[in-house]
């Protein structure tokens, strides 16, 4: 089943999402990128109802881009998170709500600190030091409670992420095989291989 | 699965001698899974009024934005700060506007109002999710631990408590009630409002 993790560290946020695209019991694709780069210092991992996910993620992506074109500066992570939350909350009480869960990781270039937001399809938002969505969350969150360190270096952060992925692979019946891992820090967004 | 118990969380407000207190837990969950232990559900409305919003977390954020907007509009139009009694009716009517598709929140508010003679009067109130007001003289409770809060508050509260004693009473009430509720807890925040200052303290609670 779909799983995504994210954790903050000293000046960075790591966001990871599995790469499977499934329909019913069938894996349709094993190299789907479910982490969008919204702006030079903002990442968003999305999961949920197939169709809704890509539609909503692209809607967010274009609107964040439009803001940047109009105002020269991009939205800061907290402002982007509020806008995305409001979009989901308005959608929730519409005729056909989007059913999309998000992890929003960003680096604030004005205050030089990383931010991570846990957002669900209802429009629930919470700023957290680490977060997860999907069945993997039941294993990863307790692990992160034990091993997460907000002042950890990037290497230590990636090692903690590896622990989460390994635990989910070991214990979850329907565990995903591959993950895409992206990092956002002062230098912007980049992808890494675990 | 009740939507009122999806995210968990509880709020309580108490009256003291020329002071009021409002307190809430800090857990945000998804049913039994804990998501955050730093979730705020009490917000300042004016310097003298605080509003607690236990219930569905998405509506906590939505209503907070809505009340900020409405209170700002009131302040601009009336050119004065809103009084607690007026604010309680604002909360009530805002919720009743959504009578047949409500926000899943049971607000609790606490504030201090000024009487025409210049004296101060403590004020607390709570409403249900469609805005039925409950003005109480002693304490009001809401959230997933509300039943337990009633029991403990009934035993601990007494009239005319001084601010420091009121702090102790409300803290012990909330801490002990949330320990008996699986969906509330994970730390608490307490605001003590007196006529010239507000003292905010965070409490450590059991993390299970």
Give the C-alpha Rg of chain B.
Answer: 16 Å
The proportion of residues in beta strands of chain B is 25-35%
CATH-scheme architecture of chain A: 4-Layer Sandwich
Please tell me the total number of domains of chain B: 1
Helix content of chain B: 25-40%
The domain tally of chain A reads: 1
Treating each run of at least 4 consecutive H or I residues as one helix, how many helices of chain B?
4
Shape of chain A: globular
Radius of gyration based on Cα positions of chain A:
16 Å
Q: Which CATH architecture of chain B would you pick? A: 4-Layer Sandwich
Main beta-sheet annotation of chain A: 5 strands, antiparallel
Largest sheet of chain B: 5 strands, antiparallel
Q: What's the number of extended β-strand segments of chain B?
A: 12
Tally the beta strands of chain A.
12
List the secondary-structure elements of chain A in sequence, H or E: EEEEEEHHEEEEHHEE
Biggest interface: chains and residue counts? A-B, 19 and 16 residues
Q: What is the CATH class designation of chain A?
A: Alpha Beta
- State the helix count of chain A: 4
Low-confidence stretches of chain A: none
Subunit structure (chain B): Component of the proteasome complex.
GO biological process, one term (chain B): proteasome-mediated ubiquitin-dependent protein catabolic process
Pfam families (chain B): Proteasome
Protein name (chain B): Proteasome subunit beta
């Amino acid at each position: 089943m779909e799983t995504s993790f994210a954790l903050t560290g000293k000046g960075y946020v790591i966001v990871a999402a599995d790469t499977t695209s499934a329909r019913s019991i069938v894996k349709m694709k094993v190299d789907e990128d479910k982490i969008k780069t919204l702006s030079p210092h903002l990442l968003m991992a999305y999961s949920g109802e197939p169709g809704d996910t890509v539609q909503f993620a692209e809607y967010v992506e274009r609107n964040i881009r439009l803001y940047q074109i109009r105002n020269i500066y991009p939205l800061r992570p907290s402002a982007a998170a509020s806008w995305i939350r409001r979009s989901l909350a308005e959608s929730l009480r519409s005729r056909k709500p989007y059913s999309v869960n998000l992890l929003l990781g960003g680096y604030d270039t004005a205050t030089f600190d990383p931010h991570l937001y846990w957002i669900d399809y209802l429009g629930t938002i919470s700023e957290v030091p680490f977060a997860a969505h999907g069945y993997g969350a039941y294993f990863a969150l307790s692990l992160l409670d034990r091993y997460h360190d907000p002042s950890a270096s990037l290497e230590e952060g990636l090692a903690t992420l590896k622990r989460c992925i390994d635990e989910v692979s070991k214990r979850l019946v329907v565990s995903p095989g591959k993950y895409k891992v992206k990092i956002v820090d002062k230098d912007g967004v980049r992808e890494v291989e675990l | 699965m009740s939507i009122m118990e999806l995210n968990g969380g509880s709020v309580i407000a108490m009256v003291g001698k020329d002071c009021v207190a409002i307190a809430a837990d800090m857990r945000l969950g998804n049913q039994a899974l804990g998501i955050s232990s730093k979730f705020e559900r009490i917000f300042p409305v004016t310097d003298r009024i605080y509003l607690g919003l236990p219930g569905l977390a998405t509506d906590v954020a939505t209503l907070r934005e809505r009340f900020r907007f409405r209170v700002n509009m009131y302040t601009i139009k009336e050119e004065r700060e809103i009084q607690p009694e007026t604010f309680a009716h604002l909360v009530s009517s805002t919720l009743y506007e959504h009578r047949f598709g409500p926000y899943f929140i049971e607000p609790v508010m606490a504030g201090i109002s000024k009487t025409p003679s210049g004296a101060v009067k403590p004020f607390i109130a709570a409403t249900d999710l469609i805005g039925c007001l409950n003005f109480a003289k002693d304490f009001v409770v809401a959230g997933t631990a509300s039943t337990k809060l009633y029991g403990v508050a009934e035993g601990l509260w007494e009239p005319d408590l001084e601010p420091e004693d009121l702090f102790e009473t409300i803290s012990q009430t909330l801490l002990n009630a949330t320990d008996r509720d699986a969906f509330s807890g994970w730390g608490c925040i307490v605001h003590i409002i007196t006529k010239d200052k507000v003292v905010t303290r965070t409490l450590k609670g059991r993390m299970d």
